[in-house]
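Final paragraph of the annual report: two paired records, presented back to back.
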Amino acid sequence: MDLNDYGKAFSSDSYATKSEVLATLQIRAGIDVFWNKILAYREQFMSKLPLRNIERLPFNISFTPGFLNKQTLLERKLVKAMIKYLKLNFNDYSRVNARLESISKCLAHLAHFYNVEVSETVFKEIINEDAKDLKPNQIILQKYYECIKDIETYSADAINESRALKFASILSGIEDLDSLYRKEELQDTSLKLYDRVYSAAPVERIKPMMSDLYEFINDSAFSPLLRSIITYFYICMIQPFSFYSEEIAILLAKAILAHYDYDEVSILIDFETLIDDLKENMTKIFETVMETNDITYIVYRVIMVIDEKVTDLLELLQMNNAEEIKEEFFNIEKKEEKNVEVVEKSSQVLHNVDYEVRVALPKLPVGLDEKDADKIAEHLLELNPSLKKGEALFYAHHCTIGKYYTIQQYKAMNECAYETARTSMDNLAKLGFYRKEMIKNKFVYTPVQRK
């Protein structure tokens, strides 16, 4: 690779830190030659932000071609997700289910972050606003959902100090808004940890810096996506609130997207992974940004994370297409209401069965019909120890030749997560119970005749 190409490779295809470049090239002598070429390439696309660090120096952002391409692609995905979600009827099963599953994922990250054990049933109760007898450590999840609901309901409200303090008040339960901004220094806040890296802003800098942030959010020419990500970083850096600064940073990021371009779909985007699964990685990148004043490091990485989450959301919305799901479920309900007749051909322990509709199973214990699905499932588990109970139960209910079944049906029947349902259906296909097919951009599973 020509020396001049290194700048592009480490700034457009990725936006590597110096330590990452060192690890990739595996050289130490002369690394500064390569690194200076990379910095020179980035400098061509560098712009100053109206936001300043704790030492009042402006942050910079480098709009390399690769960075702009990834930003544009993500923004297109966000628009696509918004259109798909808004096309779903407000009270239709598909919209309700997509909303429930997406927000459950967001709350699950917080639960893990707080080390709180929560079942999927509790998540559902919180989101349906009928949670009762929550444990004390689960209340924060309910309050966080109240903030999410506020973003959804009041997306037109301005993004300003009142909005941020409202989130802080809901999460903390403190009604005195004047007391929500941090009044005490965090440990070593007023001192450098090293270079320009601080654990938080000094108390006297909180309000001026937050004022600069609100002005940036409302007056900047940057896209809503960039404003939301930069807001997340800036609040995490300042730590302006007595409690829940990181959570408020995520909520404001969602509120910015909802207010400016992306409406209700903004609440479904799993920003919460940033303060759970990726917290350690984010902390390291935060330090790099503060050392270099180059905010591109954090923006680039968050774009990559959110791009993956929006891709998952698009897949979920596709699976929950309103008309397809509605038609499929109504047809299933009508067919499953039919009585299934069993014709006994012998008094042996096992016998052939012949239903009103042909099923994939050729032999069942004497006296069983399709309504005895629990006993059929038990029989399947005895014959196939590699099956899980939920898989056997689902198959016992859904083994009619010529029908097509979905991951969503498995999820609804077993009350499990979508990923669990997908894994189980794929396992059933792997074991030869179903054949997996793609119809209208959606995977379906049709029973295979068992021998």
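The closing record of the year follows.
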Amino acid sequence: MKNILVISFTLLCFVSYGQELEEEVSNEITATSFQEIDSLEVYKIKRVSVGIKLGIPNIAGFSAEAITPILGNRIAPYIDFSSFPVNTDETDLDLKYIEFGSNFYFGDNGQGFYVGVGFGTLNTDIVFKNIKFEENGNRGRGTGRINTKINTTNLKLGIKTGGHVYFRLEVGYGIGTIPKEITVNGRFSYEDSNGVTQESNGTETEEFPSIPGVNDKGVLVGNFGFGISF
């Protein structure tokens, strides 16, 4: 009888210990699974970013970027667009800037340091308000207008934060040929030999207007951006 009781008690202890061990293993597996899920949520790559860039040559404009899975989430095509005026006493400039290219991230989660290569186009609609014309011996002042296009190859170094709200900073240089002088067509007024005011078309050569960040060898790139990623 005593042997039966001892054996029964021993079996009961083994069963209880087995149930406790099974619960502990189950809890550990469940906790590990939740940790892995949380980790995946934290490090989930946000593929698309849209926002605003402020600086040179953008001044203020729209920006969009998409992180692709190429080379381990390191290649990110982008496009920037802005339209803005730069007016002075001598000229009125209507500028439109567009740039497209690709960023290469050093990390594999679409954030941090990157280098960028892009192609920029600065379209300028320039109005000279009061320039001197001389045409066929007639002299006078008038208004001239010209449209020009400046193309650059841009090399940049940048850094971008992660999260739903991102911030980025870029510096670099756009290599291109910027004209020092431009030929302007316009219309001017003058007095003829009888003292009567006449109007005529004329052509003059003027210096290319001063634009922030633009010189005769290229375009300075320096901007700050922010927006949302998803």
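The first strand starts at residue 48 and ends at 56. This concludes the annual technical report; the extension proposal builds directly on these records.
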